[in-house]
């Protein structure tokens, strides 16, 4: 499906790389955007357990992405879009994880299998096809930069956090103007010289990057659903022992709020994608 779209765009040689990436990922974007979860994002509900779990996955993903970007910083395809001072997220995520989990936060990280697959892919292309990092960096960094301020405010309000506490991930202090920086980033990316085969590979990787992000979201949802089911089962067993009737509204509402919180997770994982 992705290859079909890419072949179609190959005949349009006038498009810059950034425009081509946006074009070939449009279908994936629309598919994610029109799910019930994404549409419900507008409700602006996020829970602390959900947000903490999301940060764990973001930590794993960005740790590998930034290690591979650093290792390949002199590669001709990576060098033009290498902006560690402006975009690097790992230190910010570590700060947030320490705020929520404490000094031993590394021992408490839990991620779905999809996060591990995503990280493995980043490690693989960093070694075998560094030019493909362009697709992942563009999708992740510019998506987060686009949605950072909005998502940060939603998360802060939803969880009742004080300004900045636990929300470092959403802040880009090294970027004074997101719009101007995105223009610079796209310009640098469009200047990367790629063969026709390499460009086609980058476009395919952009679609793959988007799919990885959606799979991570699905994995987070399943983890929270399993946790919720266990919680409800525990409540049922406890009430049975004490001869009480299970109160559905009392046990279901927190879980409902938790699932609704995943709407923010999808937006954060995929970014608002206003690239």
From TrEMBL:
Pfam families: Heme_oxygenase (PF01126)
Record PANTHER family: HEME OXYGENASE (PTHR10720), HEME OXYGENASE 1 (PTHR10720:SF1)
UniProt-recorded name of the protein: Heme oxygenase
Residues where heme b binds: 22, 29, 138, 186
Residues spanning the membrane: 255-274
UniProt keyword list: Endoplasmic reticulum, Heme, Iron, Membrane, Metal-binding, Oxidoreductase, Transmembrane, Transmembrane helix
Chief place of localization: endoplasmic reticulum
Tree of life domain: Eukaryota
């Amino acid at each position: 499906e992705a290859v079909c779209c890419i072949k179609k765009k190959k005949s349009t040689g006038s498009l810059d790389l950034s425009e081509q990436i946006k074009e070939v990922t449009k279908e994936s974007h629309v598919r994610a955007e029109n799910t019930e979860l994404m549409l419900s994002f507008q409700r602006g509900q996020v829970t602390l357990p959900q947000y903490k779990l999301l940060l764990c996955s973001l930590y794993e993903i960005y740790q590998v992405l930034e290690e591979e970007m650093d290792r390949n910083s002199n590669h001709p395809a990576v060098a033009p879009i290498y902006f560690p001072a402006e975009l690097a997220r790992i230190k910010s995520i570590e700060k947030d994880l320490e705020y929520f989990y404490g000094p031993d936060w590394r021992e408490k990280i839990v991620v779905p299998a999809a996060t591990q697959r995503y990280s493995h892919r980043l490690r693989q292309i960093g070694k075998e096809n560094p030019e493909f990092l362009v697709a992942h960096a563009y999708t992740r960094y510019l998506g987060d930069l686009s949605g950072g301020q909005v998502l940060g405010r939603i998360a802060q309000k939803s969880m009742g956090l004080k300004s900045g506490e636990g929300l470092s991930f959403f802040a880009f202090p090294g970027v004074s103007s997101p719009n101007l920086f995105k223009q610079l980033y796209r310009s640098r990316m469009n200047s990367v010289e790629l063969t026709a085969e390499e460009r086609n590979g980058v476009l395919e990787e952009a679609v793959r990057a988007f799919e990885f992000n959606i799979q991570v979201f699905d994995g987070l949802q399943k983890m929270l659903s399993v946790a919720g089911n266990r919680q409800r089962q525990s409540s049922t067993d406890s009430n049975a022992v004490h001869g009480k009737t299970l109160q559905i509204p009392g046990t279901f509402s927190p879980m409902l709020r938790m699932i609704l919180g995943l709407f923010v997770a999808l937006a954060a994982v995929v970014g608002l994608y206003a690239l």
